[in-house]
Amino acid sequence: MEITRATLGIAVGIAGTLFLGYCVYFDQQRRKDPQFKKKLRERRQKAQQNASRSRTLGGPLPDMSDHEAMQRFFLQQIQLGEELLAAGDLEAGVEHLGQAVTVCGQTQQLLSVLQQTMPAPIFHMLLKKLPEVSERLRASMKANSSSLHEDDVE
């Protein structure tokens, strides 16, 4: 018995149709589940909270005495800020750029570059946000250094 192309095509078509039917059937069963919408809502809220938390924190602060760690943190904040601004999330993008400016060793040069490359309203948002960001970073660094001193005592 020889399998022709037509027979093979029909078999593949039938298998594809059966697979699609299987997928549709189980998707309907999943959607009928009374807990489905509740679980989906909880999962979305949790993901949104995690995303907003990671955006505002920008990751753990590096050791200020480690130049390479500070440089990596600086570059990471610049990259995240640019990505978020491009995605339209202006507040989070300005937050990350503010953190980069705060840890930058050459603040004036960075600000002049940002002023030339960013639209004026976003740059003004950054300038307004800088004192708040720098204060938060200082407080975070103080908390980190005090916890290190406590660990040293033990």
From TrEMBL:
Pfam families: MAS20 (PF02064). GO terms for biological process: intracellular protein transport; protein import into mitochondrial matrix; protein targeting; tRNA import into mitochondrion. Residues 37-46 have a biased composition (Basic residues). Keywords: Membrane, Mitochondrion, Mitochondrion outer membrane, Protein transport, Receptor, Transmembrane, Transmembrane helix, Transport. One of its GO terms (molecular function) is mitochondrion targeting sequence binding. It is a single-pass membrane protein. Residues 35-63 are annotated as: Disordered. It is found in: Mitochondrion outer membrane. InterPro entries: MAS20, MAS20_rcpt_metazoan, Tom20_dom_sf. One of its GO terms (cellular component) is mitochondrial outer membrane translocase complex. The chain crosses the membrane at residues 6-26. Belongs to the Tom20 family. This is Mitochondrial import receptor subunit TOM20-like. The lineage of its organism: Eukaryota, Metazoa, Ecdysozoa, Arthropoda, Hexapoda.
